[in-house]
Amino acid sequence: MKIKEFRELTTEELNKKIDEAKDELFKLRFRLATGQLDNTMPIQEVRRRIARLKTIIRERELGLKRA
After folding, report:
1. Which residue range(s) make up the domain with 40?
2. Which is it for the CA torsion 19, 47, 43, 9, positive or negative?
3. What is the pLDDT of residues 18-36, one digit of tens each?
4. What is the CATH classification number for the domain harbouring 24?
5. 10 Å Cβ neighbour count for 53?
6. pTM value?
């Protein structure tokens, strides 16, 4: 999803997306630890997605408006 698509979601939906991403990150880390994951790039992508979602939630808490 693009950042604009994330911004259109409600805070509850964003929290749900964060939970899903954390679960995905756990599974990726588990696969890495067991040697089943060759490319580690998906871990970085999921971590960035979580950070973006948390940033959007924090902006809403502070009342910041973004385009």
Report:
1. 3-62
2. positive
3. 999 999 999 999 999 999 9
4. 1.10.287.310
5. 23
6. 0.89
